Amino acid sequence: MGIINRLIKRPETRAASQVEQYFKLMTAYAPAYSTYQGGLYEMALTRAAVHAYATHCGKLEPKVAGSARKDLAPILQYQPNEMMDTYTFLYKLATILKVENTAFIIPILSPIGKLIGFYPQRSEGTEIKSLNGVQYLFYPSPLNDSKKIPIELEFVGIMRNHFYKQNIYGDGNTAIDTTLNLMYTQDQGIVNGVTQSANIRFLAKLAQVLRPDDITAERKRFKADNLAIENNGGVMMFDQKYDTVQQIKSEQFLIDDKQTALIRQNVYEYFGVNEEILQNKFKEETWNAYYEGAIEPFAVQLSLVLSNLLFSAKEKAMGNMIILESNRLAYASNTTKISLVTQLFDRGFMTHNQGLGIFNMSPVDNGDEYYIRREYVEVSKLGDVVLDKEAPIAPKKEDINDNKG
């Protein structure tokens, strides 16, 4: 039976509060996981890259292929859990995977033990513990982060990026730490440069030595007399207490263009995106490359994770699986769409409604039938072509001669 079926039929265990006392931490890998402390998702450029990725992953369509577990079709296609529709579920799952490199899929059971949905769980704050040789995942409760819920690890779907050093979790994002620090330093440099250039406008040198309190009082007096809004004549007056008063010209603080471009390129390469994808101005070729390099791997991995979670080996051998479809042609040019629909429709690869779907048009009645052009014939059977019964048949030569007689 499938993993989920074994989850539903597994024997009752001790209450979580009692069982937790008997757990021992695994030593083969780090049991607790945390994300980059600087906050990869808090940077504007990196968040934009993650958002673009998650947005397109959210448009995938989960479907149940095969005859088994058809009851899961509406759950996967519309609402995997009470708090999320399918788009939101896929969006969050993709975001977790991209930011933390490990995302868990937790099955949700009804009070009577029926599978009713899935929940995407962050790896942040989770722990792997073992009891009697069985590994358990402890994850924060969706309603109370301070409370952790245990579940057997074999009943959890796991998606991973940068899967190398650890046995369960994907590796962290330390490879991009330097770039993130440069981005933070740049932002702070711009803020500080603008602030300083805006605040300090005059430099005055006192002609005598004063106490600190007197210097502070004199600064306030000089500002009130010469820089207040009431001084609309633009003339500054000062006495012999000052040796010189010099105006400081504010200049715009600029970051080196080459350095900025290098930082952005590092982010693009790490997340596999470019400006065309981030700014939604990509063309057909750019989208196809991004789909194959980023979106399709997510779809393939999620398909395998859910299929292994839901179906037994026998069910999978019979063709049962979860697939995630995407209308890749949504971003194709009209010329490409017309050419593809024309070529595939009259060869029986596409129905009328499927062709309408490529153009985002509503389906029509009786539009799910397949058609094929009848003049095509297998090469080895060219001599056995049977003409259409309704087609006119040319008269024989002897019939023409008889008619003449």
Secondary-structure blueprint of this entry?
Blueprint: H1 3-9, H2 16-19, E1 24-25, H3 44-57, E2 61-65, H4 73-77, H5 86-100, E3 102-109, E4 115-122, E5 127-131, E6 134-140, E7 148-152, E8 157-160, H6 177-199, E9 202-206, H7 212-226, E10 242-247, H8 257-271, H9 275-278, H10 284-310, H11 313-317, E11 321-325, H12 334-345, H13 352-358, H14 397-404
Helix pairs in contact: 3-5, 3-8
Q: End-to-end span in angstroms?
A: 83 Å
Structural class: alpha+beta
User: Over the alpha carbons, how many angstroms does the gyration radius reach?
Assistant: 34 Å
Q: Give the helix level as a range of percent.
A: 25-40%
Total DSSP E strands: 11
Mean pLDDT: 77
Give your account of this protein's structure.
- The longest helix is centred in the last third of the chain and has 27 residues, at 284-310.
- The strands form four sheets. The protein has a four-stranded antiparallel β-sheet, with no helix packed on it.
- With 405 residues, it is an alpha+beta fold.
- Mean pLDDT is 77; it is low at 12-37.
- The protein contains 14 helices and eleven strands.
- The chain starts with a helix and ends with a helix.
- Helix 3 crosses helix 5 and helix 3 (44-57) packs parallel to helix 8.
- Among the domains are: 3-172, no CATH class; 333-387, no CATH class.
